[in-house]
Write a structure and sequence with these properties.
Blueprint lengths: L25 H5 L4 H17 L9 H6 L4 H37 L4 H5 L2 H22 L9 H28 L2 H19 L18 E4 L4 E6 L1 H10 L2 E5 L6 E2 L4 E7 L7 H11 E4 L9 H14 L7 H18 L7 E4 L5 E5 L4 H15 L4 H17 L3 H17 L6 H19 L2 H5 L10
Parallel strand pairs: 3-8
Antiparallel strand pairs: 1-5, 2-4, 2-6, 3-5, 7-8
C-alpha cells in the first residue's frame, strides 16, 4: 500500500451510534423455513380468490368433466384435503426438527443452518401450505345457492395428489439427509464453491502481502457480532470520492466487538479524514450477524467437517471411522486450496488506483483449523491419527511451494508429539510409518510414500 497520510495512530474506541436497520439478504432468506411457504400461501390465496369467481352453470360440459357432483361433495373433498395436508405439514415439521436435533447433537451445531436452507424441505412445505390455503379459501367460498367453483375444486384435486407425491419424496430425501456421509458431502461441496468464488487460482499458491505505512487512523467496528460478508463496491466508491486508502483488518467468519478496530484508513494528501463518512461506509459494507454463513466464509465448511470428526471421536459417540472419513473430505479441500492465491486482496477504483485491501487467510490457518482440534482429541486413537497423516501425505504430494511443505512438515511433527505414550507398539509403529510417508511425499518420492502391502494406508 503506497499511499500514506497524516493521522493519529492511537485508537480511541467510541460508540458508533444507533444500530443500523435490519437488512434482509439472500443468505438470510435461504436459511429461513418460512419464506417460500409464506410466498406459496399468499399466491395460493390470491389464485383461489380469482378462481372462485368462475362458477359455470350445470349445462357447461367442461365444468361437469372437472367436477360432476354438487356443492356438498365439493365441500367434503376440500375438508378432507385440508385436514390431510395439515397432518402432512405436522409430519414434515416433526421430521425436520428431528433432523435438526440429530445433526446438532451427533455431528455439529453449525450444520443446522444447512438443514434450514434445504431447498427441498422448503418446497415441500410450500406445496403443502399452498394446498391448505386453496382448500380453506375454497371452503369459505362455497355457497349451496350458487354453482360450484369447479376450477378451485379441480385445483385442490391436483394439489392433493401433488402433496402426496412430494411428501413421499420428502421421506426419501430426509432419510438420505440424515446420513453422515451426505452431511459431509454437502459441507464439502458448499465449501468448495466458496473457495472457488473467494480465492483466485494460482499454480504457485502465492500468498499476497501489501505492506502498510506505520501511521493511519483506526476505524472502529460498527457493532458486535460475526462478520458474514464484506461488500467492497460501495466502499470503493466512497474511498475514491474522498481520495482515501483503507485496509480492512477483519474478514468473514471473524468475531468482532463494537468499538474495536476493524480497519485503518489513510488520506492521499494527508488532509483531514472524513471519519463520519468512513464509518458509515464501513458499516454499510460489512454484514454482521449472530452466526457464521458460508456466503464468503471459506473456513466454515472445513469447520463443519472438523466438528463432525471431533464429535465422532468423543466418548459419547466413539466412531473413529466417521472421523477418518471426515479427514478425507478435508484433504480434498486443502489440496484445492494449495493452488489458490491466499492472503489479502487488493481492490482498485475505476481509475486503477489501489484504494482497498481486504484481509485473507493463509495456508497455515486452514491446516491448523483442520488438524489441530482433531489431533488434540484423537491423541489415543491411532486410526484417526493416521487419517490426519494420510491427509498430510495427500497435501504433501500436491504441495506447490516450500511454504506449504514447511507447514505440512510442522503438522506432521505435531501429530507425532501428541501421540499418547500408552499406545501399544504396533499402533506407535503404524503412526510413525504414516509420518515417514508424509516425509517421503514431501521429498518427492511418491513410490515410497504411497506403496503399501494391501492398501492399508488408503483405507479406513
Amino acid at each position: 500500500m503506497s499511499k500514506t497520510g497524516h493521522g493519529s495512530s492511537t485508537f480511541r474506541p467510541r460508540h458508533p451510534g444507533p444500530e443500523p436497520r435490519f437488512r434482509f439478504n439472500r443468505e438470510a432468506l435461504r436459511a429461513s423455513l418460512w419464506f417460500w411457504p409464506t410466498c406459496a400461501s399468499l399466491a395460493a390465496l390470491l389464485l383461489s380468490l380469482l378462481l372462485l369467481q368462475v362458477r359455470p352453470g350445470s349445462d357447461a360440459e367442461w365444468a361437469r368433466w372437472i367436477w360432476p357432483s354438487g356443492t356438498e361433495a365439493a365441500s367434503g373433498l376440500l375438508q378432507t384435503v385440508a385436514t390431510s395436508v395439515m397432518t402432512a405439514v405436522t409430519v414434515t415439521f416433526s421430521l425436520t426438527v428431528v433432523a435438526l436435533q440429530l445433526a446438532s447433537q451427533q455431528f455439529s451445531p453449525r450444520l443446522l443452518r444447512e438443514f434450514a436452507r434445504d431447498v427441498r424441505t422448503q418446497m415441500v412445505l410450500a406445496v403443502l401450505m399452498g394446498t391448505f390455503m386453496v382448500s380453506i379459501t375454497g371452503l369459505h367460498g362455497m355457497d349451496p345457492d350458487r354453482p360450484v367453483p369447479v376450477l378451485v375444486v379441480g385445483l385442490v384435486y391436483v394439489l392433493g395428489i401433488t402433496s402426496g407425491v412430494v411428501l413421499l419424496l420428502f421421506m426419501g430425501h430426509i432419510t438420505r439427509s440424515l446420513r453422515v456421509d451426505t452431511m459431509m458431502l454437502n459441507a464439502r461441496q458448499a465449501c468448495l464453491t466458496v473457495l472457488r468464488d473467494t480465492y483466485p487460482g494460482s499454480e504457485t499458491g502465492e500468498v499476497q502481502d501489501f505492506p502498510e505505512p506505520d501511521d493511519g487512523t483506526a476505524v472502529p467496528a460498527p457493532r458486535s457480532g460475526i462478520i458474514q460478508a464484506v461488500r467492497v463496491k460501495p466502499l470503493l466508491e466512497m474511498l475514491a470520492r474522498h481520495q482515501l486508502t483503507m485496509r480492512i483488518e477483519v474478514q468473514p467468519g471473524d468475531v468482532i466487538t463494537v468499538g474495536t478496530p476493524a480497519a485503518r484508513v489513510w488520506s492521499d494528501d494527508g488532509g483531514t479524514l472524513p471519519m463520519a463518512a468512513v464509518r458509515e461506509a464501513l458499516a454499510g459494507a460489512m454484514e454482521i450477524g449472530y452466526e457464521r454463513t458460508e456466503e464468503q466464509d471459506a473456513a466454515l465448511g472445513l469447520r463443519q467437517l472438523t466438528d463432525i470428526a471431533v464429535k465422532a471421536i468423543s466418548p459419547s459417540i466413539n466412531d473413529p471411522i466417521t472421523a477418518a472419513h471426515s479427514m478425507g473430505y478435508c484433504a480434498d479441500l486443502l489440496v484445492d486450496l494449495q493452488r489458490r492465491r491466499l492472503g489479502p486482496e487488493a481492490h482498485s477504483d475505476a481509475a486503477g488506483v489501489l484504494r482497498l485491501v481486504t484481509a485473507g487467510r493463509d495456508y497455515r490457518y486452514f491446516l491448523d483449523l483442520v488438524c489441530g482440534p482433531v489431533r488434540r482429541f484423537a491423541d489415543s486413537e491411532p486410526l484417526v491419527l493416521t487419517a490426519i497423516l494420510r491427509l498430510l501425505r495427500d497435501c504433501a504430494a500436491n504441495a506447490v511451494n516450500d511454504s506449504q511443505r514447511e507447514e505440512i512438515r510442522r503438522q506432521s511433527s505435531l501429530v507425532l508429539e501428541s501421540t499418547r505414550d500408552h499406545l501399544v507398539t504396533a499402533d506407535h509403529l503404524e503412526v510413525r510409518d504414516m509420518a515417514r510417508r508424509v516425509d517421503e511425499a514431501l521429498a518427492g518420492d511418491f513410490r515410497a510414500a504411497f506403496t503399501d502391502r494391501s492398501g492399508e494406508t488408503r483405507s479406513v
